[in-house]
Amino acid sequence: MIINLKRFFAIAMVLFIAACNTEKPKEEVSMDTLSTEIPAGLEEDIPFVLPSPLQIASIFKKSGLVYESHVTNPVGNVNKYSSRLSKSLNFGAYAADLSYCVLNNQSQAGLEYMKVIRKLSDELGISTIINSESLFKSFEKNIGVEDSMIAILSNIQEQLDQHLQENNQEYMSAVFFVGGWVEAMYIGSQLVKEKNKLSNRLVEQMTILEMLNKGLSMNPNKSAELDKLISDLQEIKTTYDNLESVKLLNEKPETNLEDFSITNDELNKIISKIQAIRSTIING
After folding, report:
1. Nearest Cα residue to 118 out of 145, 94, 138, 83
2. Between vectors from CA 14 to CA 58 and to CA 2, what angle results, nearest 5°?
3. What is the spatial distance between Cα 170 and Cα 151, in angstroms, rounded to a whole number?
4. Where along the chain do its domains lie?
5. What is the mean pLDDT of each run of 10 residues along the chain (284 residues)?
6. For labeling, which of 50, 130, 208, 276 is most exposed (least CB within 10 Å)?
């Protein structure tokens, strides 16, 4: 089960970064080394790697994302989350909010989001990664220095991935990522001003929805809450697949996504679905 999950998200990482046309933090792999084609005979022991919330936020920033404080998940909501799944999803959501603040030089807001992430990490049993005083002091010291902040967030992501691997909890990466993915999609859908660019970005993101649901379905902690999350994500995918523009696109797979856009009505249908699942997540 875990081996298969590694395969799903190794593939997702290739597809996701290949779609990202933005300036890259230093730790990212060069676009020249990536392909959107899945290699034949993908190794079973391929490292378990997910795109970070920072990478998602970077995609939308390149498309004209502006900063508005009202679109993020309020820090006060952290006390609403009681189940492990809800805490994990909002750990991901707050990580996306933190990345959004860092990329827009919002120092004080970023510090507040770091605090709620620390709180959730303690409740989730991963406090050794986030709660170290040296890391937090480094965060405070470098607030406002974008390159340093990106390096710190990237280091946190790497440590989290390693911790989950070492503790045979790779399946939790799917949950963290879904929370961050939904939050980033919501922020992007609200604030990217050029709708044609927004539709392209959303279309790119739809390619990994099926893999996300397969990853979530491998979670050993089954619950009605998890089933609802999977159902909501599937509803987004179904809505997207049934758009007339997408049906036409599927008939012409050679179409360059940069030359393709869905209509405003179709875009609004997707945005509505994203808003609904995001509301469910942040309201606990």
Report:
1. 94
2. 115
3. 23
4. 2-282
5. 40 36 36 32 36 64 76 96 95 91 85 90 81 69 74 76 75 88 88 69 79 87 94 94 88 70 88 95 93
6. 276
